[in-house]
Design goal:
Length: 356
């Protein structure tokens, strides 16, 4: 008989734990795999003490699973963590990702998923993400914004919303709404100033939850504000979810361009189409005399886009109001003026190009 996940969970559900409940009912099982008669999973205890008290249960589980017909091997690993606390109401963010079969999958109700990346931090990726989301929403698109910058979420500040989302059933998360955009950020689930010190797999689990457990509703496009660089989050995202494409933000400085090239290369390797490059902080127009200065150079990103054969989506000037608006929680694109117009043009280009 072929052994299945359900059989494993059923068996484990029959084994009581000291203090009540089972490994399944207490949601302690992560990364369950059942392949060719081999069962493996992680028991993730809440603390080192809890892990010690679960040791007999681990042995009992191993014996019970080994006794099932068709099981050749059982591997159970016990881990304990203290960093990520379960998020209220009873939602636990930071669990290990659950493996799923097949290639990257679509998320139901979401027509397009666009990852917004950069090679380097501080080039304005989060600023561009929030403003683009607002500009698209102003053009009538149904837009979601996911802050996947798990180490330094900035969307709660930039979008001006920061409260813990409701979770009526302890499983699904109701996202927040701001400036016409449906917003979710890991920042909503953490206490202010709480450092995120999660091990890699938990990080991936958190990202997966933020995409799959959030009730995004029907969206034309979900923008994902990635952490800077070319790390695990980008990899996991591309492997697990069918991304429509990626937009790379860069400043015109040579060093930033060098890193942007790495980001382009990474998306290429992950087979995620690059929808375009955006040059941020390109020109600086003096608010007093109108003089135009190119503090970080100018035009480098457009030239690079041409060289690499990817679309150039537009340039956004260095602008004090953009920073102040972002810090104050109302993206500049929500108002009127030259910057808001620049974002509206960018959004229009994406809508006309079928990207959003
Ligand atoms: N066009 C702009 N003009 C003026 N300030 C800007 C502009 N774009 C971004 N900024 C400011 O630059 C700082 C960095 O921007 P932001 O946080 O968006 O960058 P990031 O690439 O997402 O950085 P990280 O990934 O490291 O969080 C912020 O203070 C933001 O307000």
């Amino acid at each position: 008989m072929d052994i299945t996940r359900e059989t494993v969970l059923k068996t484990l559900s029959d084994l009581g734990l000291p203090g009540g409940g089972t490994l399944v009912s207490r949601d302690l099982i992560r990364a369950l795999r059942v392949e060719d008669g081999t069962i493996s999973f992680v028991i993730e205890a809440e603390s080192a003490d809890a892990a010690r008290s679960l040791a007999p249960a681990q042995a009992q589980a191993e014996a019970a699973l080994k006794a099932l017909p068709g099981v050749s091997r059982v591997q159970i690993v016990m881990t304990a963590h203290g960093g990520a606390k379960p998020a209220a109401p009873s939602l636990k963010v930071g669990g290990h990702p659950t493996p799923h079969q097949g290639g990257p999958k679509r998320v139901s109700g979401i027509d397009r998923i666009i990852a917004i990346g950069s090679g380097k931090g501080g080039v304005g990726k989060s600023t561009v993400s929030s403003n683009l989301a607002v500009a698209l929403a102003r053009q009538g698109r149904r837009v979601g914004l996911l802050d996947a910058d798990i180490y330094g979420p900035s969307q709660p500040r930039m979008m001006g919303v920061n409260k813990r989302p409701a979770s009526p059933d302890g499983k699904t998360i109701i996202p927040l709404q701001a400036h016409g955009v449906t917003v979710m950020s890991i920042g909503f689930m953490l206490k202010e100033d709480e450092a995120v010190i999660w091990r890699g797999p938990m990080l991936m689990g958190a990202l997966q939850q933020l995409i799959e457990q959030v009730q995004w509703g029907e969206l034309d496009v979900l923008l994902i504000d990635l952490p800077p660089g070319t790390g695990d989050i980008q990899l996991t995202l591309a492997q697990r979810f069918a991304l429509t494409g990626a937009v790379v933000v860069s400043t015109p400085q040579d060093v930033a361009m060098l890193d942007a090239r790495k980001a382009l290369d990474m998306f290429g390797k992950l087979k995620v189409p690059v929808l375009g490059l955006i040059e941020n902080m390109s020109t600086y127009v003096c608010p007093n005399c109108g003089h135009e200065a190119h503090l970080f150079g100018h035009g480098g990103v457009a030239a690079e886009a041409q060289k690499m054969g990817v679309p150039f989506l537009g340039e956004l000037p260095l602008d004090l109001e953009t920073r102040l608006a972002g810090d104050a929680g109302t993206p500049i694109a929500a108002g009127a003026g030259a910057m808001s117009d620049a974002y509206a043009r960018l959004a229009r280009r994406m809508v006309e190009g079928g990207m959003a």
